[in-house]
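Input record, target 12 of the design panel.
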């Protein structure tokens, strides 16, 4: 099962937008940016706009003169929402295509499938989605939000609004399992508790028995870390059962892939989220980004979501690192990025934290209303303090693990 109306939100023809990249007269070989994204399958609602964002970022870099006097060329593979293909194409993209950097992966499982291989091949890796925290890897830069940036503000905000007893729903893989623990920690820190925690495989689409269990438990709120097109069924079934008006909901994942546009207003209105980005953010940088997207993809700005913007910003941070290094040498680019590269992106200021190779950024608590994300409260320049507690790449530059943070 995949999201409905996807063909409206993401036009398939836009995936060929890389052909609009300006031609170069320079003789030097292009810099190869490797892209591994799910542009088909269950997670293409995330991957297609991320792919479009990559083409826009590369187009802007090339039109501004490229990097080191060379154009940037995307070498892309559709991983088809299949974890096995991540490993296959990661081998191909590094050993045959010999890319200079890999910027890709959506689920944490996909990141962990390719990260060790990229380390062995000494190919710089940039992972752009939000995730559960704890990766401490000198070869990897992670530019999405972590629990301490996102859930730490969402959970107490929702508790203050609705109450202290929460029912937790999460996807049954790395991200969901970790996030359920973080939710429980933030509930406890604010005097609350989880009345139950349920995990669901990514292909589960029938939640009727779960809804009955939640009705029986009578929580003050539901906190969700469900993921993907199949899990979107929960929100529809929840509303159809008349539960949306009875028990409110907060989510760290809903909205990052434009789910609020796929759901009707009746199904989504009132759900709280905490994200780094919304198209409704008022800033000169966001206005410029929306205009650029509109020029490259006329009539298709509704495809923009947080994962697309994070992907765009990840490419721009890497490009700034190359400029600062003045070289494509792996160690020089890593050092340059870790020195605190910063951009003013569509979501605001984003700065790499040299200790963890994560980022400091803004987070906004927002409410779904009329198929938009309405900002309620902003939290400026939040650092990745969850991962900072377990990772110091300045002291241990050879680290390449994911810590299981004690929660």
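The sequence produced for target 12 reads:
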């Amino acid at each position: 099962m995949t999201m409905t109306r996807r063909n409206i939100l993401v036009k398939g023809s836009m995936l060929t937008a890389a052909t609009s990249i300006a031609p170069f007269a320079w003789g030097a070989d292009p810099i190869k940016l490797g892209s591994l994204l799910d542009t088909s399958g269950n997670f293409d609602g995330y991957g297609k706009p991320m792919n479009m964002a990559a083409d826009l970022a590369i187009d802007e870099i090339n039109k501004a003169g490229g990097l080191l006097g060379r154009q940037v060329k995307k070498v892309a593979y559709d991983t088809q929402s299949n974890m096995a293909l991540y490993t296959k194409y990661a081998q191909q993209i590094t050993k045959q295509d010999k890319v200079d950097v890999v910027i890709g992966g959506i689920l944490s499982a996909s990141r962990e499938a390719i990260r060790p291989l990229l380390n062995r091949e000494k190919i710089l890796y940039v992972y752009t989605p939000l995730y559960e925290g704890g990766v401490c890897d000198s070869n990897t830069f992670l530019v999405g939000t972590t629990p301490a940036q996102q859930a730490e503000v969402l959970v107490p905000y929702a508790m203050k609004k609705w109450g202290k007893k929460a029912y937790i729903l999460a996807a049954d893989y790395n991200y969901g399992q970790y996030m359920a623990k973080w939710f429980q920690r933030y509930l406890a820190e604010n005097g609350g508790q989880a009345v139950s925690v349920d995990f669901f495989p990514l292909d589960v689409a029938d939640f009727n028995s779960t809804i009955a269990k939640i009705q029986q438990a009578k929580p003050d709120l539901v906190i969700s870390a469900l993921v993907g097109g199949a899990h979107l069924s929960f929100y529809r079934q929840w509303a159809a059962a008349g539960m949306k008006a009875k028990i409110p909901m907060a989510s760290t994942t809903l909205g990052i892939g434009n789910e609020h546009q796929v759901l009707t207003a009746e199904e989504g209105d009132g759900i709280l989220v905490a994200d780094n980005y919304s198209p409704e953010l008022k800033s000169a940088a966001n206005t410029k980004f929306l205009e650029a997207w509109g020029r490259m993809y006329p009539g298709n700005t509704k495809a923009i979501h947080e994962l697309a913007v994070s992907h765009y910003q990840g490419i721009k941070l890497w490009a700034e690192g190359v400029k600062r290094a003045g070289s494509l040498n792996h160690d020089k680019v890593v050092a340059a990025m870790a020195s605190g590269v910063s951009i003013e992106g569509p979501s605001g200021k984003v700065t790499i934290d040299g200790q963890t190779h994560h980022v400091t950024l803004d987070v906004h608590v927002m409410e779904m209303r009329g198929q938009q994300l309405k900002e309620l409260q902003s939290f400026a320049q939040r650092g990745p303090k969850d991962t900072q507690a377990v990772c110091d790449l300045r002291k241990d530059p050879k680290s390449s693990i994911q810590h299981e943070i004690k929660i």
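Residues 1-26 have pLDDT under 50 and may be disordered.
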